[in-house]
C-alpha cells in the first residue's frame, strides 16, 4: 500500500485546482469566438422560436385510445398535418418544391434528382418514440425553410437550405 504525505496531497490538490481553473478560463475565453460567424460563405440568421402549429383540426385528439383503431387516429393526424403543411407551402410560394403526402414531407432542391425526405413516426403504445415534422417558417431572402420536429415532450428546429439541400438541426427545446 502506498501512503502519501499530507504535503504531497496538498501539492497535488493545488496543482489539480490550477489545471481546472486554467481549463475553465480558456473555455470561457473561447466560447464567444465560437458564436462569431466565420468569414466563409456561411449565412447566420436569427431563427424564430418554434411554435407548435394547431394541426389537430377535424377533432384529432392526442390520445389514440379514443379512436376505434390506431389507423383511424393515424389517418386523422396525417390528414391534419397535410392540410396545415400544404397550406403553408402554398402561402410561401413553395408548393412546387415542398409538399406533404400523408406521413412524409418531400422537399425538392435544384441539382438533386431525389427530394429530401422527412418522415413521421407513429406507433401505438410508443408515445416516447413518436416523432413528426411540420413546416414552421420560411426565410425567402436566404431560401431557408424551417421545420419543427416534435418528439414526445421535446422539439427541435431543422433548417433546410433550399439551394444546397443542406439540412441542420439547430436547437432543441423541451
Structure keywords:
174 residues; alpha+beta; four-stranded antiparallel β-sheet
Task: Give an overview in words.
The chain starts with 5 loop residues before the first helix and ends with a strand. Mean pLDDT is 74; it is low at 14-18 and 20-37. The protein has 174 residues and is an alpha+beta fold. The radius of gyration is 24 Å and the shape is globular. Helices cover 29% and strands 25% of the residues. It has helices spanning 6-34, 70-91; strands at 98-101, 104-107, 116-119, 131-139, 144-151, 154-161, 167-173. The strands form two sheets. The protein has a four-stranded antiparallel β-sheet with strand order 4-5-6-7. Strands 1-2-3 form a three-stranded antiparallel β-sheet. The longest helix is centred in the first third of the chain and has 29 residues, at 6-34. The protein has a domain at 64-173. It is built from two helices and seven strands, in the order H-H-E-E-E-E-E-E-E.
Amino acid at each position: 500500500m502506498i501512503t502519501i504525505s499530507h504535503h504531497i496531497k496538498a501539492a497535488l490538490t493545488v496543482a489539480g485546482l490550477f489545471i481546472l481553473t486554467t481549463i475553465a478560463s480558456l473555455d470561457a475565453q473561447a466560447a464567444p469566438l465560437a458564436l462569431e460567424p466565420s468569414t466563409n460563405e456561411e449565412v447566420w440568421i436569427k431563427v424564430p422560436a418554434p411554435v407548435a402549429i394547431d394541426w389537430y383540426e377535424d377533432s384529432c385528439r392526442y390520445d389514440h385510445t379514443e379512436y376505434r383503431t390506431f389507423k383511424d387516429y393515424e389517418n386523422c393526424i396525417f390528414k391534419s398535418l397535410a392540410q396545415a403543411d400544404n397550406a403553408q407551402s402554398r402561402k410561401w410560394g413553395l408548393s412546387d418544391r415542398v409538399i406533404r403526402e400523408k406521413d412524409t414531407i418531400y422537399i425538392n432542391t435544384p441539382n438533386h434528382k431525389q427530394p429530401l425526405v422527412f418522415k413521421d413516426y407513429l406507433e401505438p403504445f410508443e408515445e416516447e418514440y413518436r416523432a413528426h415534422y411540420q413546416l414552421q417558417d420560411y426565410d425567402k431572402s436566404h431560401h431557408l425553410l424551417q421545420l419543427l420536429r416534435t418528439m414526445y415532450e421535446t422539439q427541435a428546429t431543422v433548417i433546410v437550405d433550399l439551394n444546397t439541400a443542406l439540412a441542420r438541426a439547430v436547437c432543441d427545446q423541451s
